[in-house]
Write a structure and sequence with these properties.
Blueprint: H1 15-20, H2 22-25, H3 56-59, E1 61-63, H4 74-91, H5 107-113, H6 121-128, E2 129-134, E3 138-146, E4 148-152, E5 161-164, E6 171-172, E7 188-191, E8 197-198, H7 203-207, E9 217-221, H8 224-233, E10 235-239, E11 245-253, H9 261-267, H10 282-291, H11 293-301, E12 307-312, E13 330-332, E14 343-348, E15 355-361, E16 371-378, H12 380-387, E17 390-400, H13 403-409
Helix pairs in contact: 4-6, 10-11
Enzyme class: lyase
Pfam families: 3D (PF06725), MltA (PF03562)
GO molecular function, one term: peptidoglycan lytic transglycosylase activity
Length: 411
Amino acid sequence: MPGAGVIWTRRMGGMVAALMSLAMLAGCGSIIPQGSRPGPVAPPIIPGQPVGPATAALTGVSRGPITAGLGFRPDNASVALTTFTQSCGRLTKRADNSGLTRPADWAPACAAASGWPASDAANFFATYFETAEVGDGNAFVTGYFEPEIAGTRNRQPGYEVPIYRLPPDLVRARPGDAQPLADGRMPLGRYDDAGVFTMYYDRGQIEDGELAGKGLEIGWAADPVEFFFLQIQGSGRLRGPDGSVIRIGYAGQNGYAYTGIGSLMRERGLIGSAPGQYSGSMQGIQQYLREHPEEGRALMRQNRSFVFFRELTGAGPVGALNVPVTGRSTVAVDPAFVPLGAPVFLQLDRKEASGLWVAQDTGGAIQGANRFDSFWGAGAEARRIAGGMSARGRALILLPKGTLARLAQQR
């Protein structure tokens, strides 16, 4: 944990969805697709409308089909079993903000997972889990990946874009020094020389040099556009001209709300299918930024949020459970609606994203019931799939057997 007053939040896994998905480009009016979903809706186990902060338990949970009938693919189930097992150390200890499970509920499955043969992984999920739908079960799924951009540890010609660690003067306001946020937390900012709390430097101010010369640089990027998108992703790799690789991850941000530049481009008529317009994909947005450098720089500054990084060591990017995330197996969720660590079965109109996933991550743009962001790993193929991922369908949360009966008794 950081020192007093400094808040380290999870990486912004999935914020790329705010740039790439059609939902974002439409202004994110509804995060749950409208229309009917496959299969009947079971009677709600927990009826009623949400009261206070929305959670799965308050939104309503329905019993889904039997797990054994879902037809898990052996290869997909095997990877999901490994991913689930890696999550168990945290899953059996942390509180579930969705209100669906208790740490002890997961103990039987986790005890069996470590010794379960990978070749029989589908039977593991059928044995220990039952399925549930949150709300109407209609799912919307986007994608994210671990980007790799040109970057070095030390500044050199061609590598002039600073990558900063979390500044020590970025703190939460003390009670009484500022108005609390809607969620009750104090806002992020800094105290000036007179001891007055104020907002922290925004993207434009930081790019203009407010943090220069303070020894906060942990690396230098070659391309400001690529670095902008790496900030959205929240983690990635810097590859130097000598082939060296430095992995960096999200350490915090400056306290400003995220603004999706894709939605701004749409409002300005820059995105669409007409001549002269650009695709709403990540690739299309980047094309506009490169072809219009001055306008693009100003557009990026409309997103006043700025992300700070830390150097990472270990097997891969670390998600909200504080365990490494796994490409084609980890999915980011809103933990108010899906227990972190829970398996999730997605039946989508995109075959490559359908199947078993494990909820190991969160993201600033991943909010609400049945909103997911699938992680595809690193490399060109991961970038291609994640950049164009926009899938709809049905989501089933896998809960330890007996959970739904217990919740029914609490009505």
